């Protein structure tokens, strides 16, 4: 489509990086947002060089309400608008047992996976509604509908994110569309550190396609949900998981 202003959180690596590559290749201006500034700026520079688009790297800890506000303020100051927001940032730290989940860990997981997406979605939705509309995509997880003992706080946050998606779709209709993707396991730097036991537990017989997804394999769904082909789609939660919860 091109010429849009696109914000991707968790954009410097993994799924977010693949999304940023897609939007830049399509001619969109891209804001790469993540907690560490240096990799965001490095990717933004690379996207500008390779695709001739305007790209900006911004540090944002999405678990911080003020950081989320600062990100949106920066985008609106620099570009005057936002057309697409992809709430991709997330985290699911390992813990020994449910009884050993600390309050700090629980709060951090909820903040990064839910609070930030809520605040950014509201700020972006308001800005989009005040102009020509736009699209928001929240990256959820199949854990939302198939929670496991080893990812329960994360699963709860993603289930709430699905609810937020539907609520924001109603709040900002008809000019702003809000949808979510429930992602299964994808090959990223996170899964590269998994042990064979963790990989088997996460995939194994539970995954009909028999493998992890590649980051590029979520891009098509993101492109659909942010493009004209999905103009009658809002409040939807689409599953991209290799058949894991089908």
In angstroms, what is the radius of gyration?
Answer: 17 Å
Calculate the terminal CA-CA distance, rounded to whole Å.
32 Å
Q: Strand sequence of the main sheet, in spatial order?
A: 3-2-1-4-5-6-7
Query: What number is the mean pLDDT?
Result: 93
Spans of at least 5 consecutive residues with low confidence: none
What is the CATH topology classification name? Rossmann fold
Number of structural units classed as domains: 1
Largest beta-sheet details: 7 strands, parallel
Annotation, overall tally of beta strands: 7
Beta-strand percentage range: 15-25%
Main structural class? alpha/beta
Measured as a percent range, the helix fraction is 40-55%
CATH class designation: Alpha Beta
Produce the secondary structure layout.
Layout lengths: L4 E5 L4 H12 L3 E6 L2 H15 L3 E5 L5 H15 L4 E4 L15 H27 L4 E8 L10 H21 L3 E8 L12 H7 L13 H10 L11 E4 L6
Parallel strand pairs: 1-2, 1-4, 2-3, 4-5, 5-6, 6-7
Helix pairs in contact: 1-2, 1-7, 3-4, 4-5
Could you please describe the fold and organization of this structure?
The longest helix is centred in the middle third of the chain and has 27 residues, at 103-129. A seven-stranded parallel beta sheet has the order 3-2-1-4-5-6-7, with helices on both faces. The protein is globular and about 45 Å long. It has helices at residues 14-25, 37-51, 65-79, 103-129, 152-172, 196-202, 216-225, and strands at residues 5-9, 29-34, 55-59, 84-87, 134-141, 176-183, 237-240. It has a single domain, classed as Rossmann fold. Strand 2, helix 2 (37-51) and strand 3 (55-59) form a beta-alpha-beta unit. Helix 1 crosses helix 7, helix 3 runs parallel beside helix 4 and helix 4 (103-129) runs parallel beside helix 5 (152-172). The chain has seven helices and seven strands; from the N terminus they run E-H-E-H-E-H-E-H-E-H-E-H-H-E. The model has no long low-confidence stretch (mean pLDDT 93). It is an alpha/beta fold. The protein starts with a strand and ends in a 6-residue tail after the last strand.
């Amino acid at each position: 489509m091109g010429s849009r202003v696109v914000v991707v959180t968790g954009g410097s690596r993994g799924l977010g990086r693949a999304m940023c590559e897609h939007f830049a290749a399509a001619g969109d201006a891209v804001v790469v947002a993540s907690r560490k500034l240096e990799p965001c700026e490095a990717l933004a520079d690379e996207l500008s060089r390779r695709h001739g688009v305007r790209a900006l790297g911004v540090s944002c800890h999405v678990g911080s309400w003020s950081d989320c506000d600062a990100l949106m303020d920066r985008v609106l100051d620099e570009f005057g608008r936002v057309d697409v927001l992809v709430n991709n940032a997330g985290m699911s730290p390992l813990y020994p047992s449910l009884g050993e989940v600390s309050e700090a860990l629980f709060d951090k997981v909820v903040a990064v996976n839910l609070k930030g997406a809520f605040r950014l979605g509201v700020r972006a939705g308001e800005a989009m509604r005040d102009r020509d509309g736009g699209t928001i995509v929240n990256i959820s997880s199949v854990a939302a509908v198939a929670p496991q003992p080893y990812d329960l706080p994360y699963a709860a946050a993603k289930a709430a994110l699905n609810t937020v998606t539907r609520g924001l779709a109603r709040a900002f209709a008809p000019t702003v569309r809000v949808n979510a993707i429930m992602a299964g396991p994808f090959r990223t730097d996170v899964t590269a550190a998994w042990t064979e036991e963790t990989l088997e537990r996460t995939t194994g017989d539970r995954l009909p396609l028999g493998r992890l997804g590649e980051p590029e394999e979520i891009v098509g769904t993101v492109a659909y949900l942010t493009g004209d082909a999905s103009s009658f789609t809002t409040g939807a939660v689409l599953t991209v998981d290799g058949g894991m919860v089908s």
